[in-house]
Amino acid sequence: MLIKKKMPATIHYMFTQHFEVPAKTAYSWCTSFSAEDFSLINQENTKREIVHLTDEVLILRDRYKTGQGWLLKEKLIHLYPEKLAWTSTHLSGPNKHSQFMYEIKAETKQTSYLVFIANHVEYQENLSCEDVCLLAEKCCSADLGVWSRLAEALNKQNQKSSKP
Hints:
- With 164 residues, this protein is α+β, with helices and mostly antiparallel strands.
- The protein has one domain: START domain (Alpha-D-Glucose-1,6-Bisphosphate, Chain A, domain 4).
- It is built from 2 helices and 7 strands; from the N terminus they run βαββββββα.
- Strands 1-7-6-5-4-3-2 form a 7-stranded antiparallel beta sheet.
- Strand 3 (57-66) and strand 4 form a beta hairpin.
- The longest helix has 34 residues, at 129-162.
- It is globular, with a radius of gyration of 17 Å.
């Protein structure tokens, strides 16, 4: 007798986010990870540690304060500067093994946009197709909200630095 193991669901979604800066500027800003990153999106009760493994590989250790204590999410980041791209793979946390792909593309000489592709692993069991669709919408909306706030911060910083 074959016993079917319950598997997590993979939630796929994608979106684009416009930037009012050149592609290389956007890539550099997006991949210059720092302990202050969460302040850019007004997310309090978070801490970030950055471990550089090589020039193009690092681990982000993000800690989030929850009602039950601190939640740790470790993410393996691979940078692909020649493609203006990077990946983030969750090594721990509630969505372990999820992977997110990011690529900055030029729109004009002075503007660019992010292509965000998510392969979110959800460990809830027995998700219906409708549940998966609703979860994809919820995750996409949340991530798009974060990137919208990040784009606003990037655009503001760029406007300040370009003023005489």
